[in-house]
Specification:
alpha/beta
């Protein structure tokens, strides 16, 4: 997302170099969406994997129109499912998508109808596996009853642990994987953001409640505690935060985003970090559920989550 949308977009060649470095390091899951750009990121990913399709598990999403405040910002109608998939396949330059997510649940369309249309894509060989993003437990159950859901994507990190209350137990019961996005707290947990002024003027995070005013200052205190523990362990704050997410279980596969090859290298290094029981207990004390100050989205966008 960050290469083309919401944060400080980068030149395509820089984004491609970052993706290529990730592939060299053994990263195989690439996650994009038709709304990123919009559309530009799918084309970027398609260019990056041209000639290397077999090395990648390719995930993309449909269901959010732009501009976001359009009359129908979220669209789960069956006809849109098919139309969106065809467009994504063309932009990505591939004949199938490995994991196809509904980006946000459409409250006006029964989930059974949306997933029913998605299952038709599987039958047609255009999609291999199905996923949901930001879906509530009951929605996940209903969807899974129509066609097996392979993964659910939601925000999950040391400062966003809502998923532990209802979604994660449901996924474990049903045998569905969890794909945490923003496992580094939208970059905050890396320790590299010390002031809102560190963000570009057009960076979406400036509108995020957690990056504003008193919330920013309170959340910075959390980051400092994470940084201190990371220094004690000889790792970076990002590696510590990612190692914590990875410790949640084998079915938890985080997708940290970046625009820099050196940050990919740092993130991959988290795989070598083993947290002791004492470390985990300390992190539980530092970052219990609800620790972050502020909602994780502005009010309008919170309304799009399938609570």
């Amino acid at each position: 997302m960050g290469m083309s949308f919401a944060y400080a977009a980068v030149e395509d060649e820089h984004g491609i170099a970052t993706i290529e470095r990730a592939l060299e390091l053994g990263v195989t899951l690439l996650d994009t969406a038709d709304v990123y750009g919009p559309e530009a990121n799918e084309r970027l990913v398609g260019r990056a994997i041209a000639g290397r399709r077999d090395e990648v598990q390719l995930a993309t999403k449909f269901g959010i129109h732009t501009p976001y405040d359009a009359d129908r910002a979220i669209d789960g109608r069956p006809e849109h499912v098919h139309r969106a998939c065809e467009a994504s396949l063309e932009r990505l330059g591939v004949d199938h998508i490995d994991l196809y997510y509904q980006h946000r649940v459409d409250p006006e369309v029964p989930i059974e109808e949306t997933v029913g249309a998605m299952s038709e894509l599987v039958d047609a060989g255009k999609v291999r596996f199905l996923g949901l993003s930001e879906a509530a437990p009951e929605t996940i159950r209903r969807a899974h009853g129509v066609h097996p859901i392979t993964a659910v994507q939601t925000e999950y990190s040391l400062w966003t642990r809502d998923v532990e209350e209802g979604v994660l137990p449901t996924l474990r019961e049903l045998g569905i994987g969890l794909v945490p996005y923003s496992p580094l707290g939208r970059g905050f947990l890396t320790g590299s953001i010390t002031s809102p002024e560190d963000l570009d003027e057009d960076d979406w995070r400036r509108t995020n409640p957690r990056f504003q005013g008193e919330n920013f200052e309170r959340n910075l205190e959390l980051v400092e505690r994470v940084r201190s523990l990371a220094e004690d362990r000889g790792v970076t704050p990002a590696q510590l935060a990612l190692a914590w997410v990875l410790s949640r279980g084998e079915e938890v596969v985080p997708i940290p985003g970046t625009t820099k090859p050196e940050r990919v290298e740092e993130n991959v290094g988290a795989l070598e970090v083993t947290l002791s029981d004492e470390d985990l207990q300390t992190l539980e004390e530092i970052a219990p559920p609800g620790v972050a100050a502020g909602q994780r989205y502005p009010e309008q966008m919170m309304g799009a989550l399938d609570g």
